[in-house]
Amino acid sequence: DAKTTQPPSMDCAEGRAANLPCNHSTISGNEYVYWYRQIHSQGPQYIIHGLKNNETNEMASLIITEDRKSSTLILPHATLRDTAVYYCIVRVRLLQGAQKLVFGQGTRLTINP
Amino acid sequence: DTEVTQTPKHLVMGMTNKKSLKCEQHMGHRAMYWYKQKAKKPPELMFVYSYEKLSINESVPSRFSPECPNSSLLNLHLHALQPEDSALYLCASSHALAGEYNEQFFGPGTRLTVL
């Protein structure tokens, strides 16, 4: 299973962009990068995923380097409610479409007022 | 309905007890998952069910026994647990399709304490 490496913690001021890096140097060609976050005492929540191209949705943007060995999750205008642990995950697809998510240690993001 | 529900929210049990955790979803997902999460650690995959059949058992001790009685329900039967099994148990579900978009939806978890 491909492994991911993230900084253990980051701080960001409210209203600024939060940029969360992730290294996944052993990713293989058909593996997607997924980002989830977990707010204290809740289940993880899906944010975004990508394969090669940059992706954007209503929550965040995902920038994947050309060699696919690293990516950055961008929260464009962070709010206090974005304080959470953010997990970068390389998805492993199993038989019959079920998938294995191997969570790394994650980045604890704190948004400061 | 995009919700995964888990019951109970909290469970305290002794080492000789038998209890069950329940997970339910009505999103038509045919893949369901159990994760274990210790305090300040990431979730760890325990079991994967696909089309009501066990696909993956991540070398979980036999005192944990999963069951998928139908496409909407997933149970985790607990017997003779140890105090170190105390953790947050998370259930998740997803489509079991060959395409890329198989987002896993997580429930809120059951916080288990083994005395």
Give an account of the 3D structure.
The complex is a heterodimer of chains A (113) and B (115). Chain A is an all-beta fold. Chain A is 0% helix and 50% strand. Chain A contains no helices and ten strands. Chain A has strands at 9-13, 18-23, 33-38, 45-50, 55-56, 61-64, 70-75, 84-93, 99-103, 107-112. In chain A, the strands form two sheets. In chain A, strands 1, 3, 4, 8, 9 and 10 form a six-stranded mixed β-sheet that branches. In chain A, strands 2-7-6-5 form a four-stranded antiparallel β-sheet, with no helix packed on it. Chain A starts with 8 loop residues before the first strand and ends with a strand. The model of chain A has no long low-confidence stretch (mean pLDDT 92). Chain B is mainly β. Chain B has no helices and eleven strands. Chain B has strands spanning 4-7, 10-13, 18-25, 31-37, 44-50, 53-57, 64-70, 73-79, 87-94, 105-106, 110-114. In chain B, strands 2, 4, 5, 6, 9, 10 and 11 form a seven-stranded mixed β-sheet that branches. Chain B has a four-stranded antiparallel β-sheet with strand order 1-3-8-7, with no helix packed on it. In chain B, strand 5 (44-50) and strand 6 (53-57) form a beta hairpin. The radius of gyration of chain B is 14 Å and the shape is globular. The model of chain B has no long low-confidence stretch (mean pLDDT 93). The chains are: A mainly beta (113), B mainly beta (115). The interface between A and B is medium-sized, with 25 and 31 residues.
Short description:
Chain A is mostly beta strands and 113 residues long. Chain A is 0% helix and 50% strand. Helices cover 0% and strands 56% of the residues of chain B.
Distance between the termini of chain B: 36 Å
Estimate the mean pLDDT confidence of chain B.
93
Which two chains have the most extensive interface, and how many residues on each? A-B, 25 and 31 residues
Average pLDDT level of chain A: 92
Query: Total number of helical segments of chain A?
Result: 0
Which class of secondary structure composition applies to the elements of chain B? mainly beta
Largest sheet of chain A: 6 strands, mixed
Series of H and E elements of chain A: EEEEEEEEEE
Shape of chain A: globular
Order of helices and strands of chain B: EEEEEEEEEEE
| Low-confidence runs of chain A | none
Q: How many DSSP-defined strands of chain B?
A: 11
Largest sheet of chain B: 7 strands, mixed
**Could you tell me the radius of gyration of chain B in angstroms?**
14 Å
Question: How many strand units of chain A?
Answer: 10
Helix content of chain B: under 10%
- What proportion of the residues of chain A is helical, as a percent range? under 10%
